[in-house]
């Protein structure tokens, strides 16, 4: 996954939300989360592979995701993450906040001189 | 919920550390392997794919460390690591560790010891259910804010109040238990029926007194104490229902009191047996105006405050005063929470001790802090290396504090051992001297307190050096040989030394003032000569108390004559009623020639001593005017009285009182002629007598007492003897004389008058002894502190001294320079201490006697003492500085 020419760097603080979203779609291992985010973003987001795991451990420590060991599609042992109910609420709250923020920012940026 | 998750994750990470570590490895390698497989699938050669996958993942170790951080494992890991490191550092410097631990052990041990006393006395709940509801009850009257309650008043208080669920009165009473062979003297307690149940206690065997069983005329019953039950009745349950003979009267034992009833409030002696009040069938017990040493306890109803109870009792006593103006005018009820009643007097002493040990601990902290600073030179290099390698400043401070807390905990452990050993060694003295002293000892609360204070101590003395160290370590100490300590840490050390000298001075001054008070008290003339005098009691054979008063009178005369004839005895006197520093007894009177006051509250009070001839000689009291009693002052001659100088001053304004007459209130009133004036005796103790309201003393002849009183003397009358023999021989000789007279006549309770006087100063003496120990520790630590800093300074200045000597400075100049620096610090510290002492010793004024809190002699000598000690502590390093060899010093550079 070398960074493509049109990839964007992840905005600060959004990785947690994206992981929660990826995990909310069904139990998934760490590598799968990376792939899922890239697939959903149509390869337009760049995620540092190394930064994924500290984030996963942190979210688990905070009780938003939980993990168990299972079999991967290629028959290896892999650690699967899924959202806890607290994690679901957290994702909802984060998403709401993000959408409100995006609206506000977009509104500001759309402003034309005539509207002032 | 989330907290629970975290705890789970922490505990999993710690307990299953190898498992979580390998799980983390497995997870990360799964990621890399999966990515590599994807790359291979896209056509990359296997080796190249693996390499790429690893490369793009980034630093695996770094990621793992971040993961551990994210899980919060590192916090705990690093504490364990700090602990291991700290222990290693302490082991590497055994001398430093030993000095620091011993210093801290002294400071923390002193605190643990005093806390175990405070905890045992002030913080322990009283051993009764709902102790906060218990109240001590007294009758307040003119001259006696907490006087004794008359039995009729008590009955009305109990019936009319609405605040107490239960109320009882009691008093001590001596009885003889007839048994096989010699009869035994018992400490009885006359009680009303509710006495045990007020406290929430019930007999462990048998039953409690029933309501009405305390009335006059009720059948004679008794409850015996647990210890008497075991000692005398073999602990057999069959004792219930048994008849015993007390003072020649049969009583039925109805129960055995629980073991913890032996030490009841208000009685420092244990009680052997409980007898209902009504068994004491005298006229006085029916009199509303009689003070018969009965004091009460009550249990407040749930939710009733003591203020509400006071208001309630005020209206109860007010109504009684209207109903019985003659007896109850001016009479109120005084309510004191039982805890205050028991321990209120000891509280200031305990507060003082607590303050003293806090000073000792602070001084210990300063000393160890200084040691750490002095060692800072070595550590600065290490800190510099560690911070260069990326350790954050918080991390470094945490590590340094872990070390100091470790030191403090070791000191705490040793201090706890010290406290445990010293409270055990002195437990007898403590239990004897302090009320509730038997509860003193090291228990889990003391252990918890000690470790808490140890941890706080570790932070206290560790924080300043740690910050200083970090500060100097951060400023690139790598290049410097790691030797130079900065000027600022030197300044901190100087301030520390001054502060500890100042604190030592305050503590020494307080102790000095208390010591001077004790000396002043020992010089106080008690009004009698205790040396060579002793007292004890004699009880006549029980039937005599029921016999004729004349028989008792003649027996009393005979006792005096027989005892006086015993070899080695120079004087013998009988005494009944009040006794200096042991018990008081009062009488009402008015001066003859003035109209009889309408009510008791308008009469005058005096302390009443009923004594026999030779009392002045036996006690060593001076006769000022007239004469004292002789054996002819008996029931066949006119009543005579002797007064003390206070009485003469107060009621006769120093006009000649001889020949004047007093009307003594009683049944019937009788008049007595004053025949002599004697010196005042400090009835209320050496320190408090001057402040008491009731100081006028009236002596009456023992043989002129009324018949009822004479019969009561058969139960026990005091004998005072003056003898050239040692007290034990005196007592033995008199005991033999007594049993030769009559085998049924017993002598008991021997005390020298020196002991009687000493007993009043026991708490004070214990306080001064403890303070002296703490002050000595403070002095020692402060000396070590100033010595340490001065010799450290000399070590630092070795180069400079070498150069100065090479340039021609004389040894004398070097000596003066070092000594001067040290003494300047010391004198500044002493000056600070004197200023602080002026502010703080004022707080002691309530406990001082015969010395001002600003006493210049005490403060001056303490300042000089500290100055001399500090001088000596500076002298040793100064001499070492003087002997510095310039060549060695310079080569060292």
What can you see in these coordinates?
- The complex is a heterodimer of chains A (116) and B (893).
- With 116 residues, chain A is an alpha+beta fold.
- Chain A contains 4 helices and 5 strands; from the N terminus they run E-H-E-H-E-H-E-E-H.
- Chain A has helices at residues 15-24, 30-40, 49-61, 85-110, and strands at residues 8-9, 28-29, 45-46, 65-71, 77-83.
- Chain A has a 3-stranded antiparallel beta sheet with strand order 2-5-4. Chain A has a two-stranded parallel sheet with strand order 1-3.
- In chain A, helix 1 (15-24) packs across helix 2.
- Among the domains of chain B are: 2-71, no CATH class; 143-329, no CATH class; 505-519 and 754-893, no CATH class; 541-744, no CATH class.
- Chain B contains 28 helices and 22 strands.
- In chain B, the strands form 2 sheets. A 6-stranded mixed beta barrel of chain B has the order 3-4-9-6-8-7.
- The radius of gyration of chain B is 38 Å and the shape is elongated.
- Chains A and B meet through helix 2, helix 3 and strand 5 of A and helix 1, helix 2 and helix 4 of B.
């Amino acid at each position: 996954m070398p960074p493509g020419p049109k990839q964007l760097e992840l905005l600060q603080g959004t990785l947690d939300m994206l992981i929660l979203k990826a995990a909310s779609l069904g139990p998934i291992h760490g590598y799968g989360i990376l792939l899922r985010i890239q697939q959903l973003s149509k390869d337009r987001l760049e995620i540092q592979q190394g930064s994924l795991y500290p984030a996963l451990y942190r979210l688990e420590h905070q009780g938003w995701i939980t993990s168990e060991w299972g079999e991967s599609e290629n028959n290896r042992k892999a650690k699967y993450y899924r959202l806890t109910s607290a994690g679901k609420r957290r994702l909802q709250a984060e998403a709401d906040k993000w959408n409100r923020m995006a609206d506000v920012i977009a509104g500001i940026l759309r402003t034309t001189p005539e509207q002032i | 919920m989330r907290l629970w998750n975290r705890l789970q994750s922490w505990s999993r990470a710690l307990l299953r550390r190898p498992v979580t570590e390998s799980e983390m490895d497995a997870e990360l390698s799964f990621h890399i392997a999966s990515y590599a497989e994807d790359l291979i699938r896209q056509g990359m050669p296997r080796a190249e794919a693996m390499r790429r996958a690893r490369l793009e993942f980034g630093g695996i170790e770094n990621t793992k460390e971040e993961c551990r951080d994210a899980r919060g494992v590192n916090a705990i890991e690093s504490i364990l690591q700090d602990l291991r490191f700290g222990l290693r550092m302490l082991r590497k410097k055994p001398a430093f560790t030993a000095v620091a631990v011993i210093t801290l052990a002294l400071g923390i041990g002193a605190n643990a010891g005093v806390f175990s006393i405070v905890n045992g006395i002030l913080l322990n709940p009283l051993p009764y259910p709902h102790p906060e509801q218990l109240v001590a009850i007294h009758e307040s009257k003119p001259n006696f804010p907490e006087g004794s309650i008359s039995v009729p008043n008590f009955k009305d208080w109990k019936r009319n109040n609405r605040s107490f669920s239960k109320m009882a009165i009691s008093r001590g009473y001596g009885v003889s238990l007839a048994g096989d062979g010699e009869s035994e003297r018992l400490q009885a307690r006359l009680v009303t029926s509710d006495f045990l149940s007020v406290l929430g206690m019930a007999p462990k065997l048998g039953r409690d007194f029933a309501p009405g069983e305390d009335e006059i005329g009720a059948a004679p019953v008794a409850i015996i104490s647990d210890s008497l039950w075991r000692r005398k009745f073999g602990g057999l349950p069959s004792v219930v229902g048994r008849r015993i003979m007390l003072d020649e009267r049969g009583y039925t034992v109805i129960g055995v009191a629980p073991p913890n009833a032996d030490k009841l409030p208000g009685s420092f002696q244990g009680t052997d047996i409980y007898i209902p009040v009504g068994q004491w069938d005298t006229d006085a017990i029916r009199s509303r105006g009689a003070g018969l040493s009965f004091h009460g306890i009550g249990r407040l109803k749930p939710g009733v405050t003591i203020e509400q109870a006071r208001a309630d009792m005020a209206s109860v006593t007010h109504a009684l005063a209207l109903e019985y103006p003659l007896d109850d005018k001016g009479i109120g009820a005084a309510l004191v929470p039982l805890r205050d009643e028991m321990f209120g007097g000891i509280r200031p002493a305990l507060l003082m001790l607590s303050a003293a040990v806090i000073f000792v601990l602070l001084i210990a902290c300063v000393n160890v802090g200084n040691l750490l600073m002095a060692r800072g030179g070595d550590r600065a290099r290490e800190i510099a290396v560690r911070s260069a390698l990326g350790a954050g400043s918080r991390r470094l401070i945490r590590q340094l504090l872990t070390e100091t807390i470790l030191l403090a905990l070791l000191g705490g452990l040793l201090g706890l051992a010290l406290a445990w050993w010293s409270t055990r060694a002195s437990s007898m003295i403590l239990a004897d001297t302090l009320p509730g002293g038997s509860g003193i000892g090291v228990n889990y609360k003391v252990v918890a307190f000690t470790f808490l204070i140890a941890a706080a101590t570790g932070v206290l003395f560790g924080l300043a050096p740690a910050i200083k160290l970090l500060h100097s370590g951060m400023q690139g100490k790598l290049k410097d040989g790691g030797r130079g300590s900065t000027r600022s840490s030197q300044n901190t050390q100087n301030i520390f030394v001054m502060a500890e000298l100042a604190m030592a001075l305050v503590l020494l001054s307080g102790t000095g003032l208390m010591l001077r008070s004790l000396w002043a008290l020992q010089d106080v003339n008690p009004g009698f000569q205790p040396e060579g005098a002793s007292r004890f009691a004699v009880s006549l054979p029980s039937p005599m108390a029921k016999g004729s008063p004349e028989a008792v009178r003649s027996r009393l005369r005979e006792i005096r004559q027989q005892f006086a004839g015993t070899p080695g005895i120079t004087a013998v006197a009988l005494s009944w009623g009040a006794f200096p520093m042991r018990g008081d007894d009062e009488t009402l009177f008015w001066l003859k020639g003035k109209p009889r006051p309408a009510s008791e509250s308008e009469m005058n009070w005096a302390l009443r001593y009923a004594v026999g001839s030779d009392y002045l000689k036996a006690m060593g009291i001076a006769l000022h005017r007239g004469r004292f009693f002789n054996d002819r002052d008996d029931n066949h001659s006119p009543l005579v009285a002797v007064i003390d100088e206070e009485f003469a001053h107060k009621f006769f304004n120093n006009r000649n009182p001889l020949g004047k007459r007093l009307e003594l209130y009683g049944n019937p009133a009788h008049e007595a002629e004053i025949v002599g004036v004697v010196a005042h005796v400090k009835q209320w103790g050496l320190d408090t007598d001057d402040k008491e309201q009731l100081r006028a003393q009236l002596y009456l002849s023992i043989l002129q007492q009324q018949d009822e009183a004479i019969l009561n003397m058969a139960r026990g009358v005091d004998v005072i003897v003056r003898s050239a023999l040692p007290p034990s021989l005196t007592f033995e000789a008199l005991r033999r004389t007594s049993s030769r007279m009559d085998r049924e006549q017993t002598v008991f309770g021997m005390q020298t008058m020196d002991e009687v006087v000493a007993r009043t100063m026991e708490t004070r003496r214990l306080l001064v002894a403890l303070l002296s120990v703490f002050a000595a520790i403070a002095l020692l630590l402060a000396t070590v502190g100033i010595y340490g800093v001065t010799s450290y300074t000399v070590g630092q200045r070795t180069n400079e001294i070498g150069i100065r000597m090479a340039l021609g400075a004389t040894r004398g100049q070097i000596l003066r320079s070092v000594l001067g620096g040290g003494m300047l610090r010391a004198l500044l510290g002493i000056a600070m201490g004197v200023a602080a002492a002026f502010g703080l010793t004022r707080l002691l004024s309530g406990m001082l006697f015969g010395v001002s809190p600003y006493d210049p002699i005490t403060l001056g000598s303490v300042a000089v003492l500290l100055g001399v000690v500090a001088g000596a502590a500076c002298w040793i390093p100064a001499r070492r500085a003087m002997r510095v060899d310039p060549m060695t010093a310079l080569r060292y550079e």
